[in-house]
Design a protein that fits this description.
The complex is a heterodimer of chains A (about 90) and B (about 400). Chain A has two helices and four strands; from the N terminus they run E-H-E-E-E-H. Chain B is an alpha/beta fold and about 400 residues long. Classes of the chains: A alpha+beta (about 90), B alpha/beta (about 400).
Chain lengths: ~90, ~400
């Protein structure tokens, strides 16, 4: 059950989660980071790193934030590399 | 009394919480799983449920499984003792589903009711405490909790009445409570490129290069190899180019993972290793010198009890824990002469190889240098052929 990055990442995009992830499954989805559920190994390393508490275990995402789980499941990861885009 | 001495089961069961925690502190026990959190502190406030993490935290590891196989009696005794001392309502052994057969004896003995065995999905990785609680109980560690001062911190197993302890840490607790034996060694797996998979018990502070030499690597001619302290996922760099520089076995070292220089550990996430037939090989007394840290990580340095030039015996106390912060006792992992005491590191020269030679090995060599070896081949077929997912 993959972890899910939710609303409070928007406007924050702190990269501590990206650094913590041992399998590089956190991608830049534009206004927020996103975890590829096909690659997440459910280790939870990212969750305590988030300064805005945006990350939930997949089975504990509140109802009002479910859209982020849906988006993560349906997102097209093929065109982007994991980690932080360097501008 | 919190002396380190031999005790019978009944004597151990008669220890108070404070006495048992103090013995762990004096014995120098810290979390062997990788966190290095001082074990005594986990037990100062007893909680209802102890979960012993018997899942190897990285692909390719064998240390915890071999410890459970070789020290069954010791684990059964320490479970019984811990239940009595700390009043646990339940002790559970967290085991991967795939290891049911390996832990069959533990399942049989659990019929006595002292502990139970809980199987967690094979996907559970990295030994992470909160995830182990989630997979082995009905409890969920909260994501974050409020501190009394209004700040927030990440949730921890004690927030839901759980103490999670690593297999090896618990064996070290057994050694301290029952045998009066302090922490002086670390169990870990050596595996990867150009080495056979082995599990060693190694004096803390031993030279990584020396251990790899014993494991069969031609250290001085292996600049094309990198050594990680850890596994494919989580690790620290130990030696970037083997033969140039050195590193030391830490209280948290769970593996020396050898990969071709220029590659990433996580490229080997699918690695599969064979259990070493000979079991655990002890290198106690087999290394030439050690560098034992008095503190480091979460630990406030202990006060040294020795000076340069002193002779020490194996398992002699060389550092007294201080009252400030987290601090634990430090013990000689090798008998010999204190060759230096600098920067919180006690160097003991044991004599098998002269210290000068060990130091020379640690110096960057002129030969074999900095040529990148980009064409290094993967060393294991398991990753490419193991399409089990």
């Amino acid at each position: 059950m993959a972890y899910v990055i939710t609303e409070t990442c928007i406007g924050t995009k702190n990269t501590a989660c990206v650094t913590a992830c041992p399998v590089d499954c956190i991608y830049d989805a534009g206004e927020h980071f996103i975890i590829n559920p096909a690659e997440c190994i459910d280790c939870s390393m990212c969750m305590p790193q988030c300064p805005v508490e945006a990350i939930y275990p997949g089975d504990e995402v509140p109802e009002y934030l479910q859209e982020y789980a849906t988006k993560a499941a349906e997102f097209d990861y093929s065109g982007i590399a994991p980690g932080v885009e360097i501008n | 009394m919190a002396d380190l001495k031999q005790r019978s089961l009944e004597e151990v069961k008669g220890l108070s919480v404070e006495e048992a925690a103090e013995i762990m502190r004096q014995a120098g026990i810290v979390g062997a799983g990788g966190g290095g959190f001082p074990t005594y502190f986990k037990y100062m406030r007893p909680l209802p449920h102890l979960i012993v993490n018997a899942t190897e935290s990285e692909p390719g590891y064998w240390g915890d499984k071999l410890l459970h196989k070789e020290y069954l009696e010791e684990f059964l005794l320490v479970f019984e003792a811990m239940k009595a001392i700390f009043g646990f309502e339940q002790i559970s052994l967290g085991v991967h589903e795939k290891d049911r057969g390996w832990f069959a004896e533990y399942q049989e003995h659990s019929a006595d009711g002292v502990y139970d065995v809980r199987y967690v999905p094979n996907t559970y990785a990295l030994g992470e405490e909160k995830t182990l609680v989630k997979h082995s109980t009905e409890s969920r560690v909260p994501r974050f909790v409020d501190n009394p001062d209004g700040t927030r911190r990440p949730g921890m197993p004690p927030d839901v009445g759980k103490i999670v302890n690593n297999t090896e840490s618990l064996l070290n607790v057994y050694n301290a409570l029952f045998l009066g034996k302090p922490l002086t060694t670390k169990f870990f797996t050596v595996y990867g490129a150009e080495v056979d998979t082995k599990v060693y018990e190694v004096p803390i502070g031993a030279s990584v290069s020396e251990v790899l030499g014993i494991a069969g690597l031609d250290v001085e001619n292996s600049g094309h190899l990198t050594v990680l302290d850890g596994g494919p996922y989580l690790h620290d760099m130990a030696i970037a180019e083997l033969g140039k520089g050195d590193a030391y076995v830490r209280r948290m070292t769970n593996s020396l993972f050898v990969i071709p220089e220029g590659r990433q550990g996580k490229e080997y996430a699918e690695i599969e290793t064979e259990c070493p037939e000979e079991g655990i090989v002890s290198l106690v007394g087999e290394v030439s010198g050690v560098n034992v840290p008095l503190g480091g990580g979460l630990l406030t340095p202990a006060t040294p009890l020795v000076s340069e030039g002193d002779e020490v015996e194996y398992e002699q106390k060389i550092g007294e824990p201080v009252d400030q912060g987290f601090s634990v006792g430090v013990w000689a992992s090798l008998g010999g002469e204190i060759s230096s005491l600098e920067n919180g590191i006690v160097a003991i020269s044991g004599g098998a190889i002269p210290q000068e030679e060990a130091e020379a090995e640690a110096e960057p060599s002129m030969a074999g240098g900095s040529q990148p070896r980009g064409e290094a081949e993967p060393f294991q077929e398991a990753g490419s052929s193991g399409g089990s997912k």
